[in-house]
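Recall the central idea of this unit: under ordinary conditions, the amino acid sequence of a chain determines the structure it adopts. In this exercise we apply that idea directly, starting from the sequence alone.
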Amino acid sequence: MSLRWRTLCAGLALLVVGCGVSLTLVSFQITRDPDEDPFPGATDVLVAVRQDGVALPRAVARTSLARGTFDTPTVPFGAGYTLRVDVLDGELLLARGTSVAFAVSSAGDESLPPVFVAPLGRFASVATRSAPVPVAAALAGERVVLGNADGSVSALALSDSSTEQQVAPAAGRRFVSLPGGLLAVAASEALFVDDEVHVNNDPSLARHGADALLVPVLPGDASEPCAYIVGGRSAPRALTRLCVTGGVLSATAQPDLGQGGWGGLGAYVTLAGDERRIAWVAREDAGGVSTALTVLNPDAPAEVASAALDLPTTGAVVVPHGMGELLVIGGRTQGGVVLDQVARVVLQTGAGSPAVRAAPSPEPLFSARQGARASWVADGIYLVYGGTNASGVPVPRAELVDVRSFPGSVAPTGQLPTADPLVVLPIDDHAQLAVSAAGVWRYASPRGFQ
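Accordingly, the structure predicted from this sequence is:
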């Protein structure tokens, strides 16, 4: 939807007192994916305005589609506004769109952002593009920072899907998403890209090598995003903390780990009492790939524990969930069997095992997959996408894992819009953006997951 507004004082002065109250009307027209009509059976359009993420209770307008014109909310002049547009069949939600942030003022010359309305549970096409293959993505204000397979970093504008290169390609560069930007590491160089590029060249980083584990501190603090570099074949017990503070990217070597390794996947988990752990699955060392869950204490690196969970983790998705909990999704056994498992693992302190597998397990995936990825949808809901089956064929459909209640459920959802590699990231509550080398799509979770 393209948005326009006009001041009430310009044409509707009777609604304000002497024009001393600065108000504005927000008007709009519908735009959509030309291949997906969000309106079959629709009866109404509901437009709501939020400011700084908070819904404005009086800035809501609901209009019958039969009228042909839309009522529009009224809001004060200000900044940090977003529009949410719902397409309804009675009280049944059919489609949804959310704008990026915008501001309105008495000048009346702002260029307001578009709102794209997509049917629920489908990937709706927003734009085509011709760019490097993205392998990682992070939301940074009103743009998405993309880490690409060729080692370059680019920025995709949410307003018009235009792409601009931020960092030139470099061999061996790896990426991890942090709150507010993207971290890139290669040899002795670390970069953090948000609305600018923060660089740290520290020779000590090179000790980790290309197979070290990168672990983002999540949910983290957008004002001070951090990550850990763990181990590496050339320095398996090394640990480095990277943080951006006051616009400066710093690298701080930590004491050596009590037990090290390289490869695998890791997740940062917060426990009760503000204790923190790094959960490491499929850790590799001189003895091969460990089948146990390795638990590190980043505040006391010498403290390392292992938990034998009878839980194959090679090729799995590992997602930190809630306080002291971890989801392990999919993967394959040592015998090559691709799994449909969804396991809840609870980390704990004190005597006994550092982690236990919760029972009963959530429902299994509809499609067994290895090498998949997951994107946060809402608290307790994750979109699992991509990966391959036992024959190495890409799995074409995404699934929603819902662990809001115990033990948890799984539901199939939208067909992926392309067989090419893509990344999916949350850009708003329940709204996802999918990006490949050739296109951009939006996804809104279906009814029951809103």
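Confidence is low (pLDDT under 50) at residues 1-21.
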